[in-house]
Each structure stands twice: as C-alpha cells, then as structure tokens.
Amino acid sequence: MPSVLVSTEIVIGTLLVIAVVVLATTFLRRRYIAKGLPLTLCGMRRSSSDRWRLGLIRFGDNALEWYTLGGVSVRPRHRWLRQRLLLDVPELLRGSDSIPLLPGASRVPCSDGDNDFELALQGPAYTALRSWQEAAPPGYNVNVA
C-alpha cells in the first residue's frame, strides 16, 4: 500500500511542478515581450477565409508587432511599420466569425503595402491602435515639408 501512495504523491508533485513552470514561463514571456510598451490581446488572419489566430500586439516606437499567444518564442511573428500600415473601417464581428476570447471585437481590415490582413480588436484596443498609428514619437519625421 505505501508504494501506491508514494507513486500518487510523485505523480501529483510532478503535475504541480509542470503547472508552475508553464505559468511562470507564460508570465515571464509576456513581461519580456511587453518591455514597458503597451501590449494587448488581438486576433489576426491573412484573409477572410482563414481562421482567427489569437496573439498579442505590441505598439512599438515605429512598428506594430504581433506575437503568438502560446509558445516560448519572444520574437514577433509579424511586424508592420507605422508609416506603411493602413487601417480601414472596423466592422463588428458577428455570428460564426466572432472570437470567444474577444467578446464585442471588431474586424479591422489592414494593409502594409504588400500584404492585406485583418485584425480583431476590442473597442479600447482599436482606439489605442488608431491613436498609435496616427501619432508619431517626438522627433519622428520632423523635417517633412
């Protein structure tokens, strides 16, 4: 009987250690990706026939970076320069097109000059994206006539 109890304790202990490692890795990855810059949950897809992929977008100084939600990579999967990014009029996601983790999200058609894609953002995140895209950091393009 003691061997069953010890085996059970080892299995439970191992599962707890794995859970703590996964949570710590997720937390540290998110902190590293943010680096003090705004970071928000976002859906992205290449065309309207593709499925939505959840990820995190970071508003950098001169580029918008999209990271996958899961995984351990700290490099952005997609990067769009501020001056090339074009945002179209948002549409509310409805029915089968909606994303459960982003209730009330809007689909925003975007283009970076070469590729068309769509972002799914909730209201405040869309406002932040639009403000970020229209603004410029101090000293950026100051000599434009």
Explain what this protein looks like in three dimensions.
This is DUF2550 family protein. This protein is an alpha+beta fold and 145 residues long. The protein has two domains: 1-34; 37-134, Pleckstrin-homology domain (PH domain)/Phosphotyrosine-binding domain (PTB) (PH-domain like, Roll), CATH 2.30.29.30. It contains two helices and eight strands; from the N terminus they run αββββββββα. A hairpin with a 3-residue loop joins β2 and β3.
What is this structure, in a nutshell?
With 145 residues, the chain is of the alpha+beta class. It has helices spanning 2-34, 123-134; strands at 39-45, 53-59, 63-68, 78-81, 86-87, 91-92, 106-111, 116-121.
Secondary structure elements and pairings:
Blueprint: H1 2-34, E1 39-45, E2 53-59, E3 63-68, E4 78-81, E5 86-87, E6 91-92, E7 106-111, E8 116-121, H2 123-134
Antiparallel strand pairs: 1-2, 1-8, 2-3, 3-4, 5-7, 6-7, 7-8
